[in-house]
Design brief:
Elements (H helix, E strand, L loop, with lengths): L17 H22 L7 H12 L30 E2 L2 E2 L6 H22 L8 H21 L8
Length: 159
């Protein structure tokens, strides 16, 4: 019988090696470049792209054990045995049940595309923004962040 292993604390920098720091910085820089490239394109954001950014951000870090690599870029409720029935809590609040994650993701990205599209009809990309335009952009960004945390569709590791 094996002893249960100590769960890694992904927020504890003392678990990161100097190589992790270098690799993590490079990973995040690559993800940021991809994010900016995507933001400047006309392509809608989707769950697959976000999952790839998540995987790219954590790949190769020593504190992501080989047995955890299957969690990178994956959503709860998928067929993977560790994710199929995984429940999570954020700040004492339950995330979406695993069986509802796919539907919630579709709803989220549909609403996000609509909200961003609505902004695009009102706000020109190639000019300075007024205070009201910045407020409208921040409102959509705040909604998206809040919904992402509320649904907590992943397994608990974020960039």
């Amino acid at each position: 019988m094996s002893l249960p292993r100590k769960r890694r604390n992904f927020w504890d920098d003392s678990e990161a090696t100097p190589e992790d720091t270098k690799r993590g910085t490079a990973n995040r820089a690559r993800v940021l470049k991809g994010l900016i490239r995507h933001a400047l394109s006309a392509e809608p954001l989707d769950a697959a792209r976000v999952a790839q950014w998540h995987k790219d951000g954590f790949s190769g870090l020593s504190y992501v054990e080989l047995t955890d690599e299957c969690l990178l870029g994956a959503y709860r409720g998928t067929d993977h045995p560790r994710l199929k029935n995984m429940y999570v809590r954020v700040g004492g609040i339950d995330g979406a049940p695993p069986r509802e994650v796919n539907e919630e993701l579709q709803r989220f990205f549909g609403q996000l595309q609509k909200r961003v599209g609505d902004l695009g009809t009102r706000i020109k990309l190639d000019q300075d923004k007024s205070r009201e335009e910045v407020r409208q952009i921040a409102e959509v960004a705040g909604w998206a962040h809040g919904e992402w945390v509320r649904g907590h569709w992943g397994q608990g590791f974020t960039l």
